[in-house]
Amino acid sequence: MTPDTLFSLKGKTALVTGGATGIGRMAAEALVRAGAHVLIASRKADACEAVANELNSLGVAGSAEGFAGDVGTENGIDGLVDQVRNRAQSLEILMNNAGVAWGAPLGDFPYAAWDKVMSVNVAGAFDLTQKLLPLLTTSASDDDPARVVNVGSVMGEVPMGDGAYSYSASKAAVLHLTKIMAKELAPNRITVNALAPGPFVSRMTEFATGEEGKRDRVGQSVPLGRVGRPEDIAGCMLFLCGQGGSYVTGAVIPVSGGINVQTADDIFAAAH
Q: Given a cut of 90, is residue 55 above it in pLDDT?
């Protein structure tokens, strides 16, 4: 076995929701470079088509196509499933990356922020996976399971707060659902794992990472001293979706530079 075969995705079809920007865009490029045919979906068809064109111009082993898809409503999910069925006979990889956030201080956090965030981040990811099971099981086997990768957040692992109450709770739910679905879908030869990213440059974090100075300041608060890079996501995806990840399910990979193990200061140091 060589690195080429260990991480090759040649001949596989993948769906990346929210794949036009941020972490989804990083993952989509990694999958295309590894040989997969990647379906990129988000609410903005033009953005998805533009990214697909960019990836197709790379001259690498895989390919991409982009189209509109909304996981925020049941009708939107049904429409997305139809789009995938029209484009693929089977689906080997599903990345549930689409997500929304809402921030407001305690005391001013609106009720509406719960329904909107939970609908996309939790219900949308669950229902889309459920409705794509027939395509995911088509080519799944003992030696090469189908793969589901859910995008959680380090904010779903540790009580960071930062006014993102519904977002943090939704990502904690994503991580727990990942483990439940890993258990239930193992007999179908489908692995279900999750990423729990820290700060990456994306549209969602533009307020904090959109400028170099801000990125540097954010990175200084991360134990490993920087914000995430595209290769951090790429490496995780190639591991989980390639042959090397075929025996891993129910895992949460903390792509957060150590934020997931950050604790209080050494409280007894003050005694010295």
A: yes
* Cβ–Cβ under 8 Å, residues 169 and 115: no
Quick one: pLDDT at residue 136?
98
Choose among 214, 226, 211: nearest CA to 259: 226
Transcribe 152-205 into DSSP letters: --GGGTS---TT-HHHHHHHHHHHHHHHHHHHHHGGGTEEEEEE----BSSSTT
The residue ranges of every structural domain in the chain are 3-258
| Cα–Cα distance measured from residue 29 to residue 33, given in angstroms and rounded to the nearest whole number | 6
165 is catalytic: no
Q: Which of 106, 104, 176, 155 is nearest to 262 (CA)?
A: 155
Catalytic residue among 111, 165, 167, 247: 167
Return the minimum-mean-pLDDT range out of 64-73, 100-109, 167-176, 204-213.
204-213
Which CATH code is given to the segment(s) 3-258?
3.40.50.720
DSSP annotation string for 89-100: S--SEEEE----
- Per-residue pLDDT, averaged over 110-125, amounts to 97
Q: Residue 183 and residue 177: Cα distance in Å, rounded? A: 10
Contact residues for 226 (Cβ-Cβ < 8 A; gap 6+): 219, 257
Q: How confident is the model at residue 251 (pLDDT cuts 50, 70, 90)?
A: very high
As a whole number, mean pLDDT of residues 110-139 equals: 97
CA atoms within 13 A on the CB side of 242: 23
Can you say how many angstroms the Cα of residue 10 is from the centroid of all Cα atoms in its chain?
A: 21
* 24-43 tens-digit pLDDT: 999 999 999 999 999 999 99
